Amino acid sequence: MNALYSLVFVFILVLIPLFGVGAAHLNTIFGICLPMTAIGIFLVFSVVKIVRWGRSPVPFRIPTTAGQQLSYDPELFKQNKWDNPSNGIQTVIRMVLEVCAFRTLFRNTSTSLHETKNGPVVAFSSSKWLWGFALLFHYSFLIIVLRHLRLFLEPIPFFVHGLEFIDGILQIGAPVMYMSDVLIVVGLLFLLARRLADAKVRYISLVTDYFPLFLILSVALSGIWMRYYAKVDVMAIKELTMGLVTMHPHIPAGIDVSFYIHVFLVSILLMYFPFSKLMHMPGVFMSPTRNMPNDNRFHHHENPWNPDIKPLSYEAYEKDFGPAMAEAGLPLDNPDNAKAPEEA
Amino acid sequence: MHYGGKIIIGIVIFVGLLLSPFVFNVGKAYKQPELKLPANEKKCVESLEFMRTKHMQLLNEWRDWALRDGKRVYVNHEGKEFEISLQNTCMKCHKSKADFCDKCHNDAGVSPYCWDCHIQPEGLK
Questions:
Q1: Predicted model pTM
Q2: SS3 of A109, please?
Q3: Which residues neighbour A108 within 8 Å (Cβ) at sequence distance 6 or greater?
Q4: Which of A144, A126, A136 is nearest to A102 (CA)?
Q5: Complex ipTM, two decimals?
Q6: Domains in chain B: boundaries
Q7: A156 to chain B: which residues are within 8 Å by CB?
Q8: Which fold has domain A2-286?
Q9: How distant is the Cα of A239 from the closest Cα of chain B, in angstroms?
Q10: What DSSP designation does B103 have?
Q11: Under an 8 A CB cutoff, do B2 and A247 touch?
Q12: Which pLDDT score, from 0 to 100, does residue B125 have?
């Protein structure tokens, strides 16, 4: 049901620019106002959220047990430096591997029941599907985003040409088919199928899990539709996009509706981003179990929000509370303390 | 903020990357390239709008028709006939690749590989 709601919602989203531009000709709103607003919302609220996360207290290190920590005898028990780092550089390596290679997903296991002669047995096995398709999806997305720079920069930087060349190296059709276009859809469809097919995952999947998947899928499909089927005037689109980044917004004539649909969906994605689970993009850098070395055993970590409490000796204590103690009949080391300070 | 320094550096990089297209383009203005159109011809193979958006598709079809189906004559929507050929048709009217095709392609960031084999009107470089 959750999946269905999300799908229907994305369909409705597609209809908005279809009629907004196709019938009502609100090109300026869909081509200029909305994308600029979306970038603004994306930027401001992402930063707000990151700062809010940054302000939460980090009282101590959270050692995760993914590997042997630095032990008293590193010869006997070899430290697993990348899974249980003890200093900054090792932590940076763990983070780079996490961000670039998704090692946490790599550790994904699947649990299953096996019937044996002696009854059912629980079995755990390594399951790399999620990891593999997640990599496929994320890297395709990255390449696609970088390729889009051709519409926002003039002259076009060399790495964009390089990406475009490698991405289209199969030289299938004209305009050439980009591998990333195919792979992102494959990746997304797997991530979607995983949620739908696995009863356990389906049970915990919410609208907020399906909606981003369908939304990104719709962005990808509208882009593919535009490039390979509808065929839009790329030069006019570059005039529009360059107008946005040079702050001389302008709507050239002759741009197909499919472009506005694509841009509208991207704008929705940008606006939805800071409020959604997609914030794992900046969030992964702030994972407390990943980004801190496990050095609790040789560094004293002071709770950062502790009040500044000065040590108080018994003599000073007796001075403060002497009169009250004397009144209660408690013994005093120094009988002078029995008198209140004014009297003394 | 705990670890505020690092977080702020991260935010600066994030915002910087996102806004870099705006920064690189400060004070610039963009205009579509000016093409050198054929002097003594009025019309392309198909309509201007069709050519602007679908010329690669047309070339792709031409290639297949010529080389797979042996069909070397193209009849356009107005009934006019053209020989199916990249070098002998397109480039007979559009006499300069550099002043025509490349103008758009440089801006669009595409470099069709056709010229690995086909000879551009300017001759081999």
A1: 0.90
A2: strand
A3: A126, A127, A128, A130, A131
A4: A136
A5: 0.91
A6: 67-125
A7: 106-107, 109
A8: Fumarate Reductase Cytochrome B subunit (1.20.950)
A9: 6
A10: H
A11: no
A12: 62
